[in-house]
Design a protein that fits this description.
By secondary structure, the protein is mostly beta strands. Helices cover 0% and strands 51% of the residues. The chain contains no helices and 11 strands. The strands form 2 sheets. Strands 2, 4, 5, 6, 9, 10 and 11 form a 7-stranded mixed beta sheet that branches. β9 and β10 form a beta hairpin. The protein is globular. The N and C termini lie far apart (39 Å).
């Protein structure tokens, strides 16, 4: 399984911006899909955004228009640019990879994002 490492989390004020990176241990060219998830304190992990191998993109309604998912195949890296951050975006953000059909089987360790009001 591919290994994933997130970075870029931190503390930011509301309406501010933050960018996350997810570096894979090998080429992401043939990975079926990669995604960002997040988990807020006391809540279940929720899906944020997905980018497929064919570069199709989808967002959760809660982040649509504010977050942008992208990837750089040459750098084996996926990104999440977060603008217009809200306190409710506070969570641990995880990247995940789907290498075979089915559930996302590879996960990073997560990076904390905290948005102050």
């Amino acid at each position: 399984q591919v290994q994933l490492v997130e970075s870029g989390g931190g503390l930011v004020q509301a309406v501010g911006s933050l960018g996350l990176s997810c570096v894979a241990s090998r080429s992401i060219l043939r990975i079926r899909a990669m995604a960002w998830y997040r988990q807020a304190p006391g809540k279940q992990r929720e899906w944020v955004a997905t980018i497929t191998g064919g570069a199709d993109i989808a967002y959760a309604d809660s982040v649509k228009g504010r977050f942008t998912i992208s990837r750089d195949i040459a750098k084996n890296t996926m990104y999440l640019q977060m603008n217009g951050l809200k306190p409710e975006d506070t969570a641990i953000y995880f990247c995940a990879a789907q290498e075979t059909p089915g559930a996302f089987g590879s996960w990073g360790q997560g990076t904390q994002v905290t948005v102050s009001s």
